[in-house]
Write a structure and sequence with these properties.
Oligomer: heterodimer
Order of helices and strands of chain A: EEEEEEEEEEE
Largest sheet of chain A: 7 strands, mixed
Largest interface: A-B, 25 and 26 residues
Distance between the termini of chain B: 41 Å
Strand content of chain A: over 45%
Helix content of chain B: under 10%
Order of helices and strands of chain B: EEEEEEEEEEE
Number of helices of chain B: 0
Strand content of chain B: over 45%
Chain lengths: 115, 112
């Protein structure tokens, strides 16, 4: 139990579907992140929210749309995905201070398969 | 852009042997973090190094940060089957949130 909960744990969707991934952190942290983990690739940072404002978007395609309604919740809305988007999507949170990225607490991930 | 290179990609050892994984950055890091991901699991934070030449130990694990703050290593003494997993370094470059670049990881397997 890391204090970061992700749902669903597994998701299979077609290329025309719309789905959402949800993340909730119970640690009182001020920053939340979406990472993508594919086979044979490093962990790729997708989005960063600090104090509910998006501070980074690493050239992620618009078919991925993040939402952070408050400091404890983070969503990743998915639509018209491609098979190459199949991956493990990891949510993380941390306590940021003065530009220093603190220890990341990861959720267990949402395994996404796009058919 | 900034990149953190990590080697080796895979390491197979006999239980009881030592293991080391190395990370290198082309530019100076403000800090480096290490994570472990068990098979089927998620990355779990191990440690953060901040100071030039810093050495930290956690039981059989020894972490080093180079004098120039461009490289780091993780050494495991006398590996055990519980050490199996992928070890990632993540280099911090300071500045705005999110400037943490992960290496590709070293996947460790331990033969009993």
């Amino acid at each position: 139990e890391t204090g970061v909960t992700q749902t669903p744990r597994h998701l299979v969707m077609g290329m025309t579907n719309k789905k959402s991934l949800k993340c909730e952190q119970h640690l009182g942290h001020n920053a939340m992140y979406w990472y993508k983990q594919s086979a044979k690739k490093p962990l790729e940072l997708m989005f960063v929210y600090s104090l509910e404002e998006r501070v980074e978007n690493n050239s992620v395609p618009s078919r991925f749309s993040p939402e952070c309604p408050n400091s404890s919740h983070l969503f990743l809305h998915l639509h018209t995905l491609q098979p190459e988007d199949s991956a493990l999507y990891l949510c993380a949170s941390s306590q940021e201070s003065f530009g220093n990225t603190g220890e990341l607490f990861f959720g267990e991930g949402s395994r996404l398969t796009v058919l | 852009g900034q990149q953190v290179m990590q080697i080796p990609q895979y390491q197979h050892v006999q239980e009881g042997e030592d293991f080391t994984t190395y990370c290198n950055s082309s530019t100076t890091l403000s800090n480096i973090q290490w994570y472990k991901q068990r098979p089927g699991g998620h990355p779990v934070f191990l440690i953060q190094l901040v100071k030039s030449g810093e050495v930290k130990k956690q039981k059989r694990l020894t972490f080093q940060f180079g004098e120039a703050k461009k490289n780091s290593s993780l050494h495991i003494t006398a590996t055990q089957t519980t050490d199996v997993g992928t070890y990632f370094c993540a280099g911090g470059y300071g500045g705005s949130q999110g400037n943490l670049i992960f290496g590709k990881g070293t996947k460790l397997s331990v033969k009993p």
